[in-house]
Amino acid sequence: MIGSMPTIPLLSLAIWVPVLAGIFVLAVGKTGNDPLVRFIALIGAILSFAVTIPLLLGFNTTQVGMQFVENFHWITRFNARYQLGVDGISLPFILLNSFITIIVVLGGLQTIRDKVAQYNAAFLIMSGLLNGIFCSLDGLLFYVFFEASLIPLYLIIGIWGGASRVYAAIKFFLFTFAGSVLLLIALITLFVHSQGNFSILLWQRMALDFNTQFWLFLAFLVAFAVKVPMWPFHSWLPDAHTEAPTGGSVVLAAIALKLGAYGFLRFSLPIAPDAAHALSAPMIFLSLIAVVYIGFVALVQTDMKKLVAYSSVAHMGFVTLGFFLFSPLGIEGGIVQMVSHGFVAGAMFLCIGVLYDRMHSRQIADYGGVASNMPKFAAFFMLFAMANAGLPATSGFVGEFMVILAAVKVNFWLGFAAATSLILGAAYTLWMFKRVMFGPVANSAVGKLKDISSREFFILIVLAVCVLALGIYPQPLTEIMHVSVSDLLRHVDASKIP
């Protein structure tokens, strides 16, 4: 079902305002006036978030189908359309993406000294392209945004990253692009089966034979599993996170990883429902490997960024586990986990960035006793570490609890295996926190550290409020998605529980 055409193209504004703001920042950057560039970038990020607020205020949580739909001719020869729309599944990610862009621009105000205009423009343009992914209802349009979003992130890692940034950027691009080739093949197959139509909503209503569904599901699996990333497609992520600048790691963790999980909900489950049910057991198995095995891998990391990167793989394993339980509680829990991970992982990488800006080291062994000189920072870091470990009353607990509960309803031992991640998460997160914040000072430079600035305090307090608000009262988020998730499961046929 599609809603009526809005009088104000809010979704187009959500896409093109940040893109145009990024282009304007590039133009202003030619003057070499970095303070002006930073100011314009911040205003552009705030404005980009502001235009998404009416989407939230005007969204009807009781309506089935897409809302704020825009539908225009694009490439007539291929029957491709500029068709946009959001439901309760995609709306939270547009808001999250636009919000995180403000955080990233704020975070780089004083830390980025080289190519300031290009840095901020890359994030603004990427924000618009990511919004395009979340609201595209045309398969070709989705693919264009999906691929275009790789370019800014590739440049961010490759230009402003660490010593091995070129290797990490190329590895990231090759992994994701290889998956995208299979996605393109799947989209062309659907175009042929639909007799020349790129409408995603039409594809979701087609009755495809099982063999076609099976191969489509496998193509979607590789394309989206790389993005999540699921085990064993995850090896690019630690390198990308380690070498990326702080802002790049934040966007990568908070938004880019969500594209694959979103693809499962928009393509894999509704277009190939029979294959999704048939292959649910392998998907659950791969998810549990990510949850448990990668948790053990995180335990032995000595680099803070790599530890949080591996924890991201484990947390996203909860997401895919919830999706393939085919229950409202599991899918809604997975979506809540995605939003929560955006806040928590983003905050964790920002905290590591705060330390790196002062010490130029990510090695846990180089720290110790930081809390004595940075008590405010230590308090924030503790909150985010607890949320990363799944402490009740934080956002990190809500999604994981919902998924574990949904898993127990299917099979007790399945839920038990998933619940072990809470122990592992607490182990590796608190081990890192203890070694960095407490104990003897391992480096003389630690004794000279100064606590967080007012700008850093503002960024962290905003994220702390988000983590606590979602952890204490998640109902507004679950209300937004509930009708859309229920409609998805009606289509996929929730009676076929694995």
Distance between the termini: 28 Å
Q: Tell me, what's the shape?
A: globular
Q: What is the C-alpha radius of gyration, as a whole number of Å?
A: 22 Å
* Rounded mean pLDDT score: 86
Point out poorly predicted stretches: 494-498
Order of helices and strands: HHHEEHHHHHHHHHHHHHHHHHHHH
Query: Based on DSSP secondary structure assignment, what is the total number of beta strands?
Result: 2
Number of helices: 23
Q: β content, as a range? A: under 5%
Helix content: over 70%
- Return the structural class: mainly alpha
- How would you characterize the largest beta sheet? 2 strands, antiparallel
| Lateral arrangement of strands in the main beta sheet | 1-2
Q: What characteristics describe this protein?
A:
mainly alpha; 498 residues; 2 strands; disordered C terminus; two-stranded antiparallel ribbon; 23 helices
Structural notes for this entry:
With 498 residues, the protein is mainly alpha-helical. Helix content is 73%, strand content 3%. It contains 23 helices and two strands. The protein has helices spanning 10-29, 34-50, 53-58, 91-107, 116-135, 139-148, 150-160, 165-193, 200-205, 210-227, 236-243, 246-256, 258-271, 273-278, 280-299, 304-323, 328-359, 370-373, 375-388, 395-410, 412-437, 454-472, 475-492; strands spanning 67-75, 80-86. A two-stranded antiparallel ribbon has the order 1-2. Strand 1 (67-75) and strand 2 form a beta hairpin. Helix 6 (139-148) runs antiparallel to helix 8. The longest helix has 32 residues, at 328-359. It is globular. Residues 494-498 have low confidence and may be disordered.
